[in-house]
Every structure is written in structure tokens, then in C-alpha cells.
Amino acid sequence: MRGKAKVIMVQGTMSNSGKSFLTAGLCRVFRQDGYQVAPFKSQNMALNSYITKDGLEIGRAQAMQAEAAGIAPTVDMNPILLKPTSHMGSQVIVNGRVLGNMKAVDYYANKSRLMADVKGAYDRLAKEYDIIVIEGAGSPAEINLRENDLVNMGLARMVGAPVLLVGDIDRGGVFAALYGTVKLLEEQEQQYIKGLVINKFRGDLKILEPGLGMLEERVGVPVMGVVPMEELDIDDEDSLSDRLNRTEIGAGVDIAVIRLPHISNFTDFGAFERMEGVSLRYVKDAGHLGHPDLVILPGTKNTMDDLLWMRKTGMEARILRLSEQGVPVLGICGGFQMLGEELSDPWEVEHGGELRGMGLLQARTEFSREKTRTRIRGTWRERIPLFSGCQEQEVTGYEIHMGRTENLGGCRELICLENGCMDGLSNEAGTVFGSYLHGLFDTPGLAEALCRQLMLDKGLDPVNWHFDLEAYKEEQYNKLADLVRRSLDMKKIYEILEAGIEDEK
């Protein structure tokens, strides 16, 4: 039996068609119109994740959508999260906790058992909210994955969700993609498609309009609108993000983030992207690293494999040479683990065995079978040149990692956490720093303190930044809602939402 919530679903012709943003935009529109609304994605595959207030792990996109809806993220919004560990397998997280690592073939053979978890999470949301906006995954036209589908048409049929189908015109072939997606569905499934949306449009809409009429005639489904390409600063879901393609060296302070093969939670560095006089770029070729003012090793789902990749490609040697020349090196989570002298994996959580670290910190990491998942606060206890003025400042963040890093005696311990543990190790000179805290640089003033020091070291006049992250996010979500209202026929969408889907006989 369904709960009280009205429901609408956003599916796409392919990955990165704009489903996450449109879902967030509808959540904000419905919230502005006075409804209690929640996002839902039954199965997400992404390396960017988020820890809820009760210490459970969900996809970052659902946390972003919950923010747009004005509510706290919960695990029910994303009951299944797949974090790729290789081309053939993923870590499977169910209801916020690690179920285990599975090869793709094994997961698909067993995913029917997870249907109860998906339905339970949806039903709990349906009892609490007025509207649920569901995001699909990939494309519903992946006919080889139709059996036991729990994320696209299988889910739409299970909860009676009318579907908006989104196509990305920026990649080209949008009419073929929309038409082909609908026609590859079973006839009964096609009845769930109640509207088409063309996303990421550039140019004169009048030129496109004749094609919209022909598309409606051929598919038999109305076009709800065309969403133009517009610059919005909202957390991206995964490595398809355009921001990872920022490779040019800009003016001012040059920060280079190493684009590891299994990079995760790159949203940690969004604060730097918004700062005047600061250039953030992603580097995957050692020859393009140059001589930045700061090197950042980000989080990764495969610390040992990515360290071996850096070693093989010459990236590690370049970073070590820069460190010798006094260039600061900063690591977050997996990047922090790489900085030590040794990594040990006795339980074969990642690579197995032992691996020499970069040797920039006198520390040792041992991986464990249990994952640390927590939101936490701490206090910056000790001053180092990179973070001058941060002493006694409260910091916030969240931990998602498997393993523990031990100070072998030569590191300065900088952050005292509220649970009594220490985090934030640096070398004696303060030129190398590592922390497990994702979201650390969202702490007001911390990114500014770091960049101010980098500017001074470079002989530049520091910028006097004043930035309110929460107010900025609200502004971006409201801009997204305005874009959705301008672009889509919200009257028809409300009609679709109200009509729902008739129960199948």
C-alpha cells in the first residue's frame, strides 16, 4: 500500500543528462510552493558520498537534493550506494552500511534481494512527505538490465510514479536519444512516460521548435520544456563532473589537485573555486603538474592502487621533488594515507599486503574491515605556517575511510576531535599536512587562511574574502528553481503529479 506522498520521477536517456540537477530543481520549486518534499534514488553509483547525522553513508547528489528541499539528508533517500573499486566491481552499501565488495555480475544476480530495502525506504519517506521526487540512474533503455530493475522503470511501476524523460542536447542526437529510449521500452512501460525534457540547450529556441513538434508527434508524449545551459555552482555527483576538466593555470595562487583514477569527494575543494585570485585545476599527467603553489592529494576509493598509479606515471616523483623545493603538499583521507611511510592491508580491504608510502609524513596506515563513518567537530590546537591564525578555531567535517593512521613520532598533531582522538598531522616544518576530514575547507575562514598565506608566500597582496557558504548555496538553489520555472511547464507537471499512475490491472 502506498503512502500519502505524490510522486514524480526523473529519468534520463543516458548518464549525466541532468537528472540530478532537475531533481534538485523540482525539489526546490515544490518547497517554494509550500510542500514538504524529499528526493529519492534507490540505487546510486558514485564515489562522491555523504555522511548523514546518524553516521550513515549516501550519495552526495541526494544530500545536495535534500538541501534544495530544505531538509536534512537521511539514508532513506538513497538506500543503495555502489562505490566502484575497479572496472568490474564495487563496494556495495545498503542502508548506509557496507554490505561488501561485489563483482558486477554477482551484484546483478543478487539485487532482487535488495528490493525490500528499496521499498521500505520509499514507504518511510512516503508517510512523512507530501511529494517525493525520484531520480533514475543511467537509462531505462538498457534492455540487458531490465530484469529485476529497481532504479528505473521497475521502480516507477513499483511505486506508481509518472516519469519525465530528460535528454542532453549538448552532446548531440537528442531527438534520436529521446525517441529511441521510449521505443525500446515495453508498451506498458511507455505509458509511464508523461513528459519529455530537453536539457543543456544553447542557441535560439525558435530554431529548435519545429523539431519539438515532430518529436511529440512521433513519440506521442508532450515536451514539458527546454532547459538552457546556465552556470550554477551546485555539488556534482561523480567523475563526469565538468569541473574535473579544469586544467588551465590561472592568475594568482595556483592549486593543483591530483586527478587520481579513483578520485572521490572532490567537492572538498569547492571553497577554493569560489575565491578571487585563486586558481584550482585538476592534473592527471605528471608533465602538466608544473610548479604550483600547493599540491592536493584528494580522497580515493583505492588508496594503494592510486599510489601505485602515481608511482608508475611519475606523478609521485614530481610531487616529491616539489616538496623538496618547499611547495606545500596537502592530503585528504586517501591522499592523507599516501603521505605516510607505509600502508598495510592485512585484511585485503583494498590491494592486500604492504606498500611503501610517499614518506612525507612519519606515519603508518593500516586498513581495517570496519568503515569509519561519522560527522565530527574538532578544535585546531597547534599553529603551523600554512594555517596561520587558525589556532583554537573550531572545525567541522565528516570521515569516510577504512583504516587508521598512526603517528610514528615525528608528526605534529593539529586537530583535537570531540571524541578525544587527534587528526591533522603535519611534518615539523608544517609544509606537509594530512587529514581524514572531508568538508574541512567548508569551515568558515579555513580555506581563506590557507590561501592568504599562499598569497603572502608568493608576494601577492591577499584578498579580503567574505563568504557565507550557506547563503551562497541558498542563492544557487533558488537560481536553479528559477531556471526550472522559466523552462518547464510547471502547470502541466503539477497535473502529472496529481494524476499519478492508475493502478495496473
| Annotation, overall tally of beta strands | 27
Rg (C-alpha, Å): 24 Å
Spatial strand sequence of the major β-sheet = 15-13-16-18-27-26-25-22-23
Biggest sheet, in brief? 9 strands, mixed
The end-to-end distance, rounded to whole angstroms, is 15 Å
Estimated share of beta-strand residues: 25-35%
Uncertain runs are none
Oligomer: single chain
Q: Shape, please?
A: globular
Structural class, by secondary structure, is alpha/beta
Count of runs of 4 or more consecutive helical residues? 15
Average pLDDT score: 93
Residues in helix, %? 25-40%
Describe the structure in your own words:
The protein has 505 residues and is α/β, with parallel strands linked by helices. 30% of the residues lie in helices and 27% in strands. The chain contains 15 helices and 27 strands. The protein has a nine-stranded mixed sheet with strand order 15-13-16-18-27-26-25-22-23. Helix 6 packs parallel to helix 8 (205-219). The longest helix has 19 residues, at 469-487. It is globular.
Give a quick set of tags describing it:
single chain; 505 residues; alpha/beta; nine-stranded mixed β-sheet; six-stranded parallel β-sheet; 27 strands; 27% strand
